[in-house]
């Protein structure tokens, strides 16, 4: 039987077996993930509805559980599975850094950039490194709206001290998509630098993650790269 002669819900699985996973569209991957659609709607059609509703996979990965549950055919089980799958992808992307040094802005963006571009709220992360600049831990220390204040430097340092970190990199996102630092970003960077020097922890960099569609511009801003640290 040719793929096109098969029932629509069976086609992605057979297509994957015959041609490999890269041959599947986003909607077909979602169809395989869901297994079933809803009454009168196939799994592929449900996948297409999700892509159409959120715009693309990146925006879908940013959706909260309540937002997913608003889509007919997406119940608590499917919503939880989606959230867990995106989190699994994020953790998988971090694994290589346990054996590698994190020294350049490109390393930081590879570690956290894609995930933080998905966020609709501001998030502040601290990357904790040992004396060889290898990853100990990444932790979120603040999440809120763009109108709320940045995480307190003392909280960042508390995490670093708790993990016996030699150095730390601070990362936060601009949900607006523009990674250009604000006056508040400059001020908090100065405060973090002073506090880090006082306790003997190396403040390696502060990265701001912007959007993914900024033409030829960089998707991030590095204070160290800009000569501001």
Describe the structure.
- The protein is of the alpha+beta class and 229 residues long.
- The protein folds into 2 domains: 3-91, DNA polymerase, domain 1; 100-222, Cytidine Deaminase, domain 2 (3-Layer(aba) Sandwich), CATH 3.40.140.10.
- It is built from 9 helices and 5 strands.
- It has helices spanning 11-19, 26-34, 43-54, 57-62, 65-69, 76-94, 105-117, 153-162, 183-199, and strands at residues 122-129, 135-144, 167-173, 202-209, 220-222.
- It has a 5-stranded mixed sheet, sandwiched between helices.
- Helix 2 (26-34) crosses helix 3 (43-54).
- The chain is elongated, with a radius of gyration of 21 Å.
- Mean pLDDT is 84; it is low at 1-5.
Largest sheet: spatial strand order: 2-1-3-4-5
* CATH top level class name of the largest domain: Alpha Beta
Radius of gyration, taken over Cα atoms and rounded to an integer in Å: 21 Å
Beta strand count:
5
Instruction: Figure out the total of helices.
Output: 9
Please supply descriptive tags for the structure shown above.
229 residues, alpha+beta, DNA polymerase, domain 1, Cytidine Deaminase, domain 2, five-stranded mixed β-sheet, 44% helix, disordered N terminus
Care to give the gist of this entry?
The chain is an alpha+beta fold.
